[in-house]
């Protein structure tokens, strides 16, 4: 097991970009954990005398990244926002992965009436426009960050279940599945040890694309007033809230949250790529 | 001849297929239409037939991957179809399988050592280190180097992979090994090696084989007894020698004539069987072989021939063979 892990690390190290992404992701997690201690500003306190101040490029070393439309320090909001945005992103991914994979495997592996039932529910959910669906779910459950996360996860679960099911359908017809069954392996054993490892590639691809979407969807829900309270710093909400000032030439209000989302999404995608490669024995040289 | 290990009686498997001219009615594809044979302890039974004649369906029934439509499979006197979970698990421990395609019958994500210990893990045999020890022993037995144990299947050639499959099948010390075309995906030179391995293992471990193949030369080399299948039925069974020296059923005769002779100067009686295998959806009345048989008469067109014993070890399903009194 030890050597297996070492081989994994060795292979992972070969992908320089993935290693870089790993450290960026790690840094973001640190910011999320320690963010509130890294700045003296209160991210919620407004100061109408200091609205839309530019940052260090205009020799404003007090508000390094400038202030937003209500005079709140942008750097402080970004640091605080890391906690919420990453929490939302990763939680949504975990919920979606867990439920989507289980539904997809059950549906594809057992087939028949169970498959029919799950897939029709998936069809129903997919028939709604995603944002509308999330809105309806939040409206039904009530507002709050947990409910918003759940709503976004529900929007993405059907897509993942579909992808997983499709892959399972190909994998389960392969002789090694029958071979395992014939030597006495149970269905649970087969699903966990033979089906799951062989469908992980498309699943990881889907999930790595989800982080950015989840952060932006939270912003959209917040913007519509059903997700997170707009005063709470959250990258997506900051991005969409700042877009009105773009026309006034106050670019920093949107650009910095945008860069943070970009870093989070890109690092996660590259990390996912690297992990997938390192896990896949066939790509090891 | 030893005692009967596995006996198959009137095994049938019909699959529904959508009918072309009826919206709600389905036709039945008769993949197996009454198969009878027995496997005796310590022998190698060769099951031979063209593609689509039901060889692989027989395999699926024998492993109880799917339930048959009708018929009975007895394993040491216990009906396979009425076994409860524990009995079935014990059965699956005693009957192991080697597949045709060594590329897709090994999970690409598993290391060789784990693939070989998997059956032991499924049946909860031994501790982790005992299992590894056993697997290494098996690798040596089938002619794989121990250093390869942490490699993945894609790093091996076809022949080596088939050796891995064999080691896997041997892990549980089975009684019977069902081999479904185990060499037809391999190069000819490798085929001989793997066949010899099968033979050698049989002697060393006292195994019983059901060897499914379409290749008569392979069957002749490995089998003690041969069963010839045509369109979901057994048409002739005999010892290998008898079958190749004195084939009784016209179909067996035609099959044997189709074996190419590796000698360009030899006069070759090029009498190829006319016609095609009838569709298993619309099987002909009477003997299934009659549309292609040059000796067929009226009786063959209307009456289904049963498997008749000609001698103690030789039986055939044909009206035109006279049973010696």
Question: Layout of SSEs?
Answer:
The complex is a heterodimer of chains A (about 280) and B (about 325).
Chain A: H1 2-14, H2 16-34, H3 74-110, H4 112-127, H5 130-141, H6 145-172, H7 175-182, H8 187-208, H9 210-223, H10 235-242, H11 252-279
Helix pairs in contact in A: 1-11, 2-3, 2-11, 3-4, 3-6, 3-8, 3-9, 3-11, 4-6, 5-6, 6-8, 6-9, 7-8, 8-11, 9-10, 9-11, 10-11
Chain B: E1 4-18, E2 26-40, E3 44-48, H1 55-62, E4 70-75, E5 78-79, H2 85-94, E6 95-98, H3 112-122, H4 128-141, H5 158-170, E7 176-180, H6 188-205, E8 208-213, H7 216-222, E9 225-230, E10 233-239, H8 240-245, H9 250-257, H10 298-302, E11 308-311, E12 314-316
Parallel strand pairs in B: 3-8, 3-9, 6-7, 7-8
Antiparallel strand pairs in B: 1-2, 1-4, 4-5, 9-10, 10-12, 11-12
Helix pairs in contact in B: 3-4, 3-5, 4-5, 5-6
Give the gist of this structure.
The complex is a heterodimer of chains A (285) and B (325). By secondary structure, chain A is mainly α. Chain A is 72% helix and 0% strand.
Model description:
The complex is a heterodimer of chains A (285) and B (325). Chain A is mainly α. The two termini of chain A are 19 Å apart. Chain A has eleven helices and no strands. In chain A, α1 packs across α11 (252-279) and α9 (210-223) packs antiparallel against α11 (252-279). In chain B, α3 (112-122) runs parallel beside α5 (158-170), α4 (128-141) packs across α5 (158-170) and α5 runs parallel beside α6 (188-205). The longest helix of chain B has 18 residues, at 188-205. Chain B is globular. The chains are: A mainly alpha (285), B alpha/beta (325).
């Amino acid at each position: 097991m030890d050597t297996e892990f070492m081989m994994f690390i060795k292979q992972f190290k070969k992908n320089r970009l993935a290693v870089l992404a790993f450290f960026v992701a790690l840094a973001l997690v640190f910011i999320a954990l320690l963010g509130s201690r890294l700045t003296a500003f209160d991210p919620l306190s407004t100061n109408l005398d200091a609205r839309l101040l530019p940052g260090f490029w205009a020799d404003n070393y007090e508000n390094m990244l400038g202030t937003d439309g209500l005079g709140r320090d942008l750097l402080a909001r970004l640091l605080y926002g890391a906690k919420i945005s990453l929490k939302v992103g990763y939680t949504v991914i975990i919920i979606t992965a867990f439920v989507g994979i289980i539904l997809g495997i059950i549906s594809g592996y057992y087939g028949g009436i169970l498959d029919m039932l799950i897939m029709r529910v998936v069809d129903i959910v997919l028939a709604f426009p995603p944002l509308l669906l999330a809105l309806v779910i939040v409206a039904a459950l009530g507002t709050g960050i947990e409910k918003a996360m759940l709503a976004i996860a529900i929007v993405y679960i059907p897509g993942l279940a579909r992808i997983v099911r499709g892959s399972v359908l190909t994998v389960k017809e392969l002789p090694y599945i029958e071979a395992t069954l014939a030597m006495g392996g149970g269905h649970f054993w087969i699903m966990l040890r033979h089906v799951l490892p062989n469908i992980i590639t498309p699943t990881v691809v889907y999930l790595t694309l989800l982080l950015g979407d989840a952060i932006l969807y939270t912003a959209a829900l917040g913007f519509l007033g059903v997700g997170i309270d707009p005063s709470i710093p959250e990258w997506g909400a900051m991005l969409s809230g700042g877009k009105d000032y773009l026309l006034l030439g106050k670019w920093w209000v949107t650009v910095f949250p945008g860069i943070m989302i970009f870093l989070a999404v890109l690092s996660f995608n590259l990390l996912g790529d690297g992990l997938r490669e390192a896990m896949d024995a066939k790509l090891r040289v | 001849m030893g005692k009967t290990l596995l006996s198959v009686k009137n095994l049938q498997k019909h699959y529904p297929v959508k009918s072309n001219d009826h919206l709600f009615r389905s036709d039945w594809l008769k993949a197996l239409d009454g198969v009878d044979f027995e496997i005796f302890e310590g022998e190698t039974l060769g099951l031979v037939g063209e593609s689509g004649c039901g060889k692989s369906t027989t395999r699926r029934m024998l492993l109880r991957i799917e339930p048959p439509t009708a018929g009975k499979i007895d394993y040491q006197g216990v009906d396979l179809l009425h076994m409860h979970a524990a009995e079935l698990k014990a059965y699956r421990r005693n009957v192991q399988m080697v597949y045709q395609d060594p590329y897709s019958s090994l999970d690409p994500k598993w290391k060789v050592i784990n693939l070989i210990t998997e059956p032991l893990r499924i049946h909860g045999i031994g501790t982790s280190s005992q299992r590894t020890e056993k697997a290494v022993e098996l690798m040596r037995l089938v002619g794989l180097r121990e250093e390869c144990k942490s490699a993945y299947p894609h790093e091996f050639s076809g022949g080596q992979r088939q050796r891995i499959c064999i080691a896997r099948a041997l892990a549980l010390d089975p009684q019977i090994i069902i081999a479904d075309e185990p060499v037809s995906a391999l190069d000819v030179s490798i085929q001989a090696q793997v066949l010899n391995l099968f033979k050698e293992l049989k002697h060393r471990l006292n195994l019983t084989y059901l060897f499914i193949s379409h290749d008569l030369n392979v069957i002749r080399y490995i089998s003690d007894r041969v069963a010839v299948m045509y369109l979901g039925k057994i048409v002739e069974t005999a010892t290998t020698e008898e079958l190749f020296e004195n084939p009784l059923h016209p179909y067996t005769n035609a099959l044997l004539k189709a074996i190419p002779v590796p000698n360009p100067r030899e006069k070759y009686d090029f009498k190829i069987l006319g016609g095609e295998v009838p569709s298993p959806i619309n099987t002909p009345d009477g003997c299934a072989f009659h549309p292609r048989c040059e000796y067929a008469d009226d009786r063959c067109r209307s009456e289904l021939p049963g498997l008749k014993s000609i001698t103690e070890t030789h039986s055939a399903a044909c009206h035109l063979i006279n049973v010696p009194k």
